[in-house]
Amino acid sequence: MIRVTVQGTRYDFDQEHLLVAEARELKTYTGLTPPRWAMGIDEGDPDAVAFLIFLSKKRAGETLRYSDLDSLDYADIEIEAVEEPADAADAGSDGEVPAGDPTGPPPGTGTTPTDGSGATSPPSPTTSSTPPATSAA
């Protein structure tokens, strides 16, 4: 989760989920793809930061135009990565999701269940900034 504070108002942004419509807006307003946007946020790119604020406010139900952000002062913006606390009701003491939970593994595990057999697929290249592992053959 990314915590964005703009002029004293806090927004918690779930970067694990991005709708196709949001990704299209991202591309239209910034020219960035989702992976490049994530890197831009880390680097403080003004377009990436502006879109993070725009989408955070939009998801919070605020009505605004993208151009409304042009007058923001960087001094009024704080961005920090926040780890979500494990929900004790949903996870065991070891952080594992209980069997039969339809939500699957906890976020950040890097794998996706395939057919219920326990086998997993490699992470999607569009949702991970880590390159896939290569084998030395």
Task: Set down the secondary structure blueprint.
Blueprint lengths: L1 E5 L2 E5 L6 H11 L3 H10 L2 H14 L17 E5 L30 E2 L6 E2 L16
Antiparallel strand pairs: 1-2, 1-3, 4-5
Helix pairs in contact: 1-3, 2-3
What can you see in these coordinates?
This protein has 137 residues and is α+β, with helices and mostly antiparallel strands. 26% of the residues lie in helices and 14% in strands. The protein has three helices and five strands, in the order ββαααβββ. The protein has helices spanning 20-30, 34-43, 46-59; strands at 2-6, 9-13, 77-81, 112-113, 120-121. The strands form two sheets. It has a three-stranded antiparallel beta sheet, with helices on one face. The longest helix has 14 residues, at 46-59. The chain is globular, with a radius of gyration of 18 Å. The termini are far apart.
